[in-house]
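It is worth pausing here to work through a concrete case rather than discussing structure prediction in the abstract. The textbook approach is simple: state the sequence, then state the predicted structure, then interpret. We follow exactly that order.
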Amino acid sequence: MIFLIATINLEGIWEFQLDGEKQGFQKPLNDTIALPGTTSYARKGKRNQAAHEGSLTDEYEFEGWAWFSRTVDIPEEHASSNVMLYLERTRVTTVWIDGVELGTQNSLCAPHLYNVTGHLTKGVHTITIRVDNTNYPTKGGHMTSRDTQTNWNGITGRMELQFYGAAYLDDVRTFPNIADRSVTVKAKLIGASEGVLSVSAASVNSTSQHEAAMRTYPVSGGEFEFIYPLGEDALLWSEWAPNLYELKLELKQADAVTDVHESLLGLRQFKAEGGDFTINGAKTFLRGKHDGLIFPLTGFAPTTVEEWLEVLGTAKSFGINHYRFHTCCPPETAFEAADRLGIYMEPELPFWGTVTDETYENHNETEQQYLIQEGYRMLQAFANHPSFVMISLGNELWGSKERIDDILKGYKAYDNRPLYTQGSNNFQFVPVILEHEDFYCGVRFSRDRLIRGSYAMCDAPLGHVQTGPQGTMKDYDDAIIPQSLNSVDSVNKETDGGTIQIQYGTEAKTVKADAAEGELVPHIPVVSHEIGQFQTYPDFNEITKYTGPLKARNFEMFKQRLEEKGLDHLAEKYHISSGHLAVESYKEELEAAFRSKHLAGFQLLDLQDFSGQGTALVGVLDAFMDSKGLISAEEWRTFCSDAVLLARFPKYNYLAEERFEASVQLRYLRPESLSGFKLQWELKAGDSPLASGEAIASVSGSGEFLDICQIEFSMPSVSSMTKTSLHLRIAGTDIRKSYDLWIYPNHIEVDKSGVSLFEELTDEAAALLEQGERVVIMPKLNQLQNTIEGTYCVDFWCYPMFRSISESMNKPVPVGTMGLLIDHEHPLFKHFPSEMHSTEPWRQIVENSRSIILDGTDKELQPMVQTIDNFERNHKLGMVFECRVGNGSLLVCVLDAEQAGETVEGRQFLHSMFHYVRSDDFHPQANLELSKVRELLA
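Step two, the predicted structure:
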């Protein structure tokens, strides 16, 4: 927004004083500070010696009052003007000019705008601002959370005095109309009974240039509106072509210009049509990410367009077209950057709790009214941006459905431009769809109707990515719209007298829960909430990147624990191996979403790491939005973009000459048609082609879900286990996909001959070892005490947080492991070639295994198959390990051979293991005393 008369920039050095005890303003102030900024970023106050395990640590954490004061010289030509003090982003502020208190404002999301007209006459004046980051009307969600941007104190973004003429414009709102290529402008004329507006618009951020004809409109004092035509050839805004206009409103009084308002305009219509989202009539699919305003170098959200272009541009390079802000709202420059990049934005009220009405004993009318008004402030400040397409009332809300719907009704009556949802994952196990919401965002429609691939143990049942068996057949269509409708399913088993126990933030909570009557079948678009949450082990090299006020003391604690266990030499391998498994898990999670015709989008948690809530390292990017080196943006886009090829097949492991069948589909979300395109497919082992083919198909435009063809062939004959890759590509485009498949030779036998095999360390086994013999022990899984259950998938979110929640809810604690670290060059794998990390041949093997806790054993005892533990426990876990015991050689494999042997991959592994034990390669280097072996196998 630009004002014709003038602005005075208030950035610079201010006098300053911290007032943690809230003693009040005391002259002289004892320090100075550069604004905009925060007290922590300026390293003011006492250095914080604490070390937070579950989040980053603010080295200069401060809560209380902070006083800021400076003088400003008002020139004579502005002395009689209308004046506003503009503070873009802050906390609870109170303002004085020359000692006169002018009021208090408390928006966490919108700018603070003080009318200081009459208080700034010609000459020097003192502006004093008190910022309080304690007395919020609400907890503030991720606007004030230690887990995200911290509860900072200060003022960020633009700080200025804005000078108006006697008459000026206020509350300018623009409503685009794509049908007739016009914009309806609604505004208020302040300080005059009438005036004349000159209106013009010129395109920007576009490959084509367009300029609308200038028009004039007489306007009356108070509220007014008019329709400004942009012309038949006006450019539309979308994710594919984010064309913008600079809209200029020039207010004249008696031919003298008294105000100028300039803003960005995007001509677009974002709608919910049946179960789909459309942009200007074309179907789109939301490829969203969660965002909690995590900025580790500053501890607060950036306020320049350039910074947000970099952040959002990185996400867009990974195929993201949508941002959901968890209980927070970014500053205006984020919306402007999204306008320019074509990203659909969804801010959320800063609330995570229960929406009550007057019938609730704990009803807080003051807090509720504050939150409702905060929503109106967000709409007034940011909803002109074309990227502002949707808004949510909060995260995982409970309470009065009637009150929530009434709030939605009020917002929609005020501003019908964005789409509205009651909240993100409201009512959890007992969801509802309310009359006035435009789309549904959740994780299930009942206890068993799941619409994402992973869940916490306290929210069980777990998802298909976690449990397997794995192929690429899974979609969520039947969960969204069941083929056979039952009455009320097993969700009622979770309720007890109208209450249900749920995860609430980082804790557990008991809430009222009314099960819906019958099955809930959506009639509006469905968005899958916070999908993924696949964790990687910390990269301790990241510690040095925290050069700002936030320090990674949690990482330092985790690193120290690993060192104390003598496992620090494995840290980088833990990170890489768990990370590759997490990437493969994300691939399946995202593809399942793209396979689902009834799903309108997803919100990923997350593309980047989440620094808080126990430290959830769930990204393929770190908290700085830098790559972890696990996958490139180009490769990620093969399963997360506006054109995704999908091969549907039931499994990854095949016998030689077994028939392979797959249906190939395309989820196409681009505006241009693909007529007569050629799909090319090829099965390769390394660089050697094994099978290939092609098919011709066409797609007319965005939103099509196309069945391209069936692939059918017999797997080649192989003499050894062979890793292959199925490659799909649409010729002449960037659309491609690949899948790893494994082929096994026929008639593989698990030959145990010549092997001294035991289920426990018997006297006979001990004697054989003493005699220098070779012994294999495969213990019964249910007879071992000192073990951890085998599970294929990486841990969900982070172990410490959900261990605590599960314990408080008296529910099973998560297994908490993070995949395998495989010594893949070891001769054990001569006939079972493996990567360093878990891959699909290991899934059923691991699910039928346990890992022995080997804490305290020598560094030389390095399991060939080691399970990676979480950073809280850091157990040394061995699924398969070997050692010298006396004169003999011992191999321990904690696997149910009978169950594993029912699969081709299990038989292949056992074949390789027993072959190794009989070979000359079996000569363990580490030594264990017999007594220690007895202890481990107890």
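Step three, interpretation. The longest strand covers residues 182-204. The first helix runs from residue 305 to 317.
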